[in-house]
Design brief:
Number of strands: 23
Strand content: 25-35%
Radius of gyration: 24 Å
Largest sheet: 9 strands, antiparallel
Shape: elongated
Number of helices: 11
Structural class: alpha+beta
Oligomer: single chain
Distance between the termini: 47 Å
Length: 484
């Protein structure tokens, strides 16, 4: 079986293979930053790490192209660290193992990192290729996009000289993205004093096998959220079986729909079988309600060591009620683009144990007033439970510019190369373009990329056949960039 570094175009796949060998989960970027700086030195282009941890590269124009507009190629260096339940992969130390099946590149039990490693690989391909014709080119490879777009948010003003921004973080080939949603992180926290456990036994409930997915690209598909499905079971167990909550852990990334959640409930021993029956009934209900979407639902209940402490009853009830009431999913679609989500929220992470509760949500909207609305709704929900609620990492939406000069150029090249018109799209997923535009408002911006499916999950994959036309379009566009 061939390896991905042997695929064509070599300029992208060889560089992407190198990226898979370097651990680069969000928050742990020292190795990839060093690699990128060493790469630039080796191929002879200017590069530096800025104060935000971003890597900036600069390649001078091909002789005769010095009067062309400067193009900024932009991607992010970090990847989402999600893995299958059976995987023992350590994202901070282990390389990503890849394989090719039915024309798609996959990872073995983990996220692939094609989001946005393929964009980074394309930038590296441009930087190293001495045969390409182009005007001045900058590369901006941002830090920690997946956890809060920190690299873009802290990007210094005056650092870049470009006229055109080509963001390479879109995931459907043949579509040019010209707008995207803004977002905000909502974090609700509470400290409480545990009480002694007076129950006879404990049961761990584990819900897993859900599809999960990207909370921007796939939120409209109605996939099950492990935290929202778990709360239905927990609420019933407390109400009917005298159960008490000891701990809750569900989800691990704000921008990933949670596919797994675990709770530990303490209860009278006489009610254990009834709890197991309740769990089986809930599994059947999830299968029935999501029967065209979720096909691998697993919901297990097993007796475990009885914990020494539990949540106080009032705290437990307030938290469970708030989780039950918390909005999750699509709020509404864009009226003028009814196929595109306007506003949504993802109940992403719940951690409750040892006197501390934390609930983390990512809300998105292409309208600032609706972003404020959904954030306030969520804030109100958890305020009523007595939690401290903080909003952070807010970024604005990217307003579409259908008259973009670079869009028209890309559409023309696409039709010449592919023989049909490309699609112009506004995405619900957040892109760094809006943040960069706020600091460099004169940029002409379009986002595009090859086909990537199921990002932010262990099922992430990239279609091999889409990468070569993506590369051809990119390199031809660099050649045809207009004069200043």
């Amino acid at each position: 079986m061939s390896e991905i570094k042997d695929l064509q175009p070599a300029a992208i796949w060889r560089n992407f293979y190198a990226l898979t060998q370097i651990p680069r989960p969000s928050g742990h970027l020292e190795k990839i930053q060093k690699y990128l700086l060493d790469f630039a030195k080796e191929v002879g282009v200017e590069a530096f790490k800025d104060a935000a941890g971003n890597i900036v590269m600069r390649k001078p124009a091909t002789p005769g192209y010095e009067n062309r507009k400067t193009v900024l190629l932009q991607s992010h260096m970090d990847m989402v660290p999600q893995k299958a339940p059976e995987s023992t992969h350590n994202f901070e130390t282990d390389p990503i193992e890849t394989y090719i099946e039915d024309g798609w590149v996959h990872a073995k039990g983990t996220t692939l990192g094609a989001d946005n490693g393929l964009g980074v690989a394309a930038i590296l391909g441009v930087m190293e290729d001495k045969t390409l014709k182009h005007g001045p080119v900058e590369g901006l490879i941002t830090a920690d996009e997946e956890t809060g777009m920190f690299g873009a948010n802290d990007l210094p003003k005056g650092e870049l000289y470009a006229d055109i921004l080509m963001n390479l973080d879109s995931e459907t080939w043949g579509k040019f993205v010209i707008g995207s949603a803004g977002g905000v992180d909502i974090t609700a926290t509470l400290e409480y004093k545990d009480v002694d456990n007076d129950q006879e036994t404990a049961v761990k409930i584990t819900l897993q096998g859900l599809r999960g997915g990207h909370s921007g690209l796939e939120i409209h598909e109605g996939r099950a959220n492990a935290n929202k499905e778990m709360v239905r079971l927990v609420h019933k167990a407390i109400a009917t079986l005298d159960a008490r909550l000891a701990s809750w852990h569900g989800g691990n990334m704000r921008n990933a729909i949670p596919f797994k959640a675990e709770v530990v409930l303490a209860l009278p021993k006489s009610n254990v079988e009834a709890l197991k029956k309740l769990a089986e009934d809930q599994r059947a209900a999830i299968e029935d309600q999501f029967k065209t979407i979720e096909k691998n639902v697993e919901l297990s209940a097993e007796e475990v060591d009885n914990p020494q402490t539990l949540l106080p009853v009032e705290i437990q009830d307030n938290l469970v009620d708030a989780i039950y009431a918390c909005h999750n999913g699509v709020t509404r679609m864009i009226p003028s683009y009814p196929s595109v989500v306007e506003t949504s929220s993802n109940l992403a992470i719940i951690d409750i144990e040892d006197g501390k509760a934390a609930i983390k949500i990512l809300a998105r909207s292409s309208r600032e007033d609706m972003k404020e609305y959904i954030a306030t709704q969520l804030q109100s929900c958890f305020n009523m439970a007595g939690m401290k609620v903080e909003l952070s990492g807010s970024y604005g939406g990217w307003d579409p510019n259908p008259d973009s000069e670079v869009l028209k150029m890309l559409m023309k090249i696409y039709k010449e190369q592919i023989g049909k018109d490309a699609i112009i799209q506004v995405d619900h997923a957040g892109l760094e373009c809006s943040i960069i535009l706020a600091k460099y408002p004169n940029l002409d911006v379009v986002s595009f990329g090859p086909n990537i499916r199921s990002p932010h999950t262990a099922g992430e994959r990239c279609e091999v056949a889409s990468v070569e036309p993506f590369w051809k379009l990119l390199t031809k566009a660099l050649e045809e960039v207009p004069e200043k």
